Automatic annotation (TrEMBL):
InterPro entries (UniProt xref): CoA-bd, NAD(P)-bd_dom_sf
Gene3D superfamilies: NAD(P)-binding Rossmann-like Domain
UniProt cross-references to Pfam families, sorted A to Z: CoA_binding_2
Comp. bias intervals (Low complexity): 178-189
Protein name: CoA-binding domain-containing protein
Residue ranges constituting the CoA-binding domain according to the UniProt record: 16-112
Region listing for Disordered, in residue ranges: 173-195
Length: 195
C-alpha cells in the first residue's frame, strides 16, 4: 500500500444508502473474525447478505447459505465486499464483472488495496472503495460510534433515526448530504497525499 485513500463521506454514504444486497467474499464462520463481525452487523442493519467462501459450501452463516463463488448466488448483488488479500482482488473483480446484472459497487476491506483491480472494476461501471470497512463506515456515518465516544467526524444537528430497540442501532436515513456521484478513484485522486 502506498498512499492513504480518502473518500468523501457523501460517496460512502451514497453507497451504503443505495445498496440493498451485499456479498462478502472470504467471510469466515468463526465468530472472532472481522469478516464475521462485518457480516453480522450489516445483516442486522437490514442488508440482504450473501456469504461466499468455497471452503464452507453447504454450511450456513447466521441462517444464510454459503456459496462457493459469486456466480452461484441466485439473486442480483448490489455490492461485493472482498475480505481477501490484495493479490486476489483481480480474480474477484473478474468474477463480479461476469455477473448479470453486474454489481454496482466493489469494496475492498481495510488493508486491501489493488489499484489495477480497482481500475478494471471502474472501467466495468462499478464504484470502488478500497482500504475501508462498510461496518465501520456505517457506524461512523450513522453516528452509532459516537455513542461510544469515538470521533466520527460528523457534525449535525439532526438526530439519527434509531433502528429497532437499541440506542446504538441507527440508520443512515439522515438526509444531510447527497452522495454516491463520484468514482472511487476520482475521489481518492482528489485527496492531497499525506506524508
Amino acid at each position: 500500500m502506498t498512499d492513504a485513500l480518502h473518500y468523501p463521506d457523501t460517496f460512502i454514504r451514497g453507497i451504503l444508502k443505495t445498496v440493498r444486497s451485499i456479498a462478502i467474499v472470504g467471510v469466515s464462520p468463526k465468530d472472532n473474525r472481522p469478516s464475521y463481525f462485518a457480516f453480522k452487523y450489516l445483516l442486522e442493519r437490514g442488508y440482504k447478505m450473501y456469504a461466499v467462501n468455497p471452503g464452507q459450501t453447504g454450511k450456513d452463516l447466521l441462517g444464510r447459505k454459503f456459496y462457493a463463488k459469486l456466480a452461484d448466488i441466485p439473486d442480483p448483488i448490489d455490492m461485493v465486499d472482498m475480505f481477501r488479500a490484495a493479490p486476489y482482488a483481480d480474480g474477484v473483480v473478474e468474477e463480479a464483472l461476469a455477473l448479470k446484472p453486474r454489481p454496482a459497487v466493489f469494496w475492498m476491506q481495510l488493508g486491501v488495496r489493488n489499484d489495477e483491480a480497482a481500475a478494471k472494476a471502474e472501467a466495468g461501471g462499478m464504484k470502488v472503495v478500497m482500504d475501508r470497512c462498510p461496518k465501520i463506515e456505517y457506524g461512523r456515518l450513522s453516528s452509532e460510534i459516537s455513542w461510544m465516544g469515538v470521533n466520527s467526524r460528523i457534525i449535525s444537528s439532526k438526530r439519527a433515526k434509531i433502528m429497532g430497540g437499541g440506542v446504538q442501532r441507527m440508520s443512515l436515513n439522515r438526509e444531510t448530504l447527497a452522495g454516491g456521484t463520484t468514482s472511487g478513484s476520482a475521489a481518492a485522486a482528489d485527496e492531497p497525499k499525506s506524508s
